[in-house]
């Protein structure tokens, strides 16, 4: 609920003005049948053309006011909704872009789109609810001026009906929240599976992934049907009650007209108000479902915003700069904080992220720096990217799509590694650079990195933040960081022989 309050507070100006304008629009609509009744009694019944022209002009002004009020009010509210949804997406993006945060890609997609939009719709629901209350109040007052019993039907019946309908609100909230949660999980899973489709095919796991998505989709369908059933019963009950109230008012008015207690114009007004009240009654009865949807989406966004990324290791940097060394770093439970700490923008340090990014263009354009072309062949061999180049007839001039969409995960990793090696930074930080390649290629890459950057006399340093035994085996030493503290240092072989925790983390 804190997010919903914050959403209202930072849009309070537009919501307040929009609510007043929507209230004015609804109030004018409620006055229309009242004014028509006045025209019938004071102009039509008397046969006065002057009064007919006067009151018709008043009716025209009323329609002008309600039209302008509606257009201006909805413009204010739509602007507020769009701006708030944008702010929420930026907040979610800022949270998940923190390299120390771990949020699944699919979750980010559903939360930053559907949930952000649904939460921002609160800025429309409140003005509509306010407008419905204004319309109901004016209608009740108009009916009271004609006949107190008719007005009391609305003044007493409306709160009773709303209180009764509100008893279903908690159940609606639970069903809608459950529906959005499982639907979000299904969408998240679909996004993650599509993103990793090539690696899944590579290891023959596509059938298992399809079964997993099928189960999640069926769960989502079942939750959607349960929520739809609850909302359907609720809507049917609210429509039935609203119709009965409107029919009761019309029947009572007809009786009063036949007994001479109200005039023909007043009968027209009552029938018009009875018909008009269906709209605000529908809004009032649908409100619990609307607010339940916004609340459920807000809770999903709050869950992301409340994530506390792993704190950077305290004290001095636990991994000192290396010169001429190849150092392995095993971080438990999460390496994100250490990667973020090292990625400080220093010109002497290049941090190659775990998830590589390629841009549209040729392989050559994704790799080459004008000053590094002499090393290209050597770097391609060291990173095992020469196989990627050789797999295409155009070689280095082969065109790749944005983000390397047509390449497998292993091909993207190897090209990104080649690009990092071509840069020749004094300190190169590689975070799990071989997770999408096979074991044989991983061993070749490990030896290639070692041979390329750590020849005799080299002053270049490399940090391999990984749990891969193939990569750790080529390092000069390994540093084990657990919960932000260095707990062990030694060679890979020595740690594997003496440290049970290290062995469990690495030798899997």
UniProtKB/TrEMBL annotation:
PROSITE patterns: ABC_TM1F, ABC_TRANSPORTER_1, ABC_TRANSPORTER_2. It is a multi-pass membrane protein. Residues 18-285 form the ABC transmembrane type-1 domain. Its main location: membrane. PANTHER family: ATP-BINDING CASSETTE SUB-FAMILY B MEMBER 10, MITOCHONDRIAL, ATP-DEPENDENT PERMEASE MDL1, MITOCHONDRIAL. Keywords: ATP-binding, Membrane, Nucleotide-binding, Transmembrane, Transmembrane helix. GO terms for molecular function: ATP binding. It holds the Pfam family ABC_membrane. The chain crosses the membrane at residues 20-40, 52-70, 132-165. InterPro entries: ABC1_TM_dom, ABC1_TM_sf, ABC_transporter-like_ATP-bd, ABC_transporter-like_CS, P-loop_NTPase, Type_1_exporter. This is ABC transporter ATP-binding protein/permease. Residues 279-508 form the ABC transporter domain. It is found in: Cell membrane.
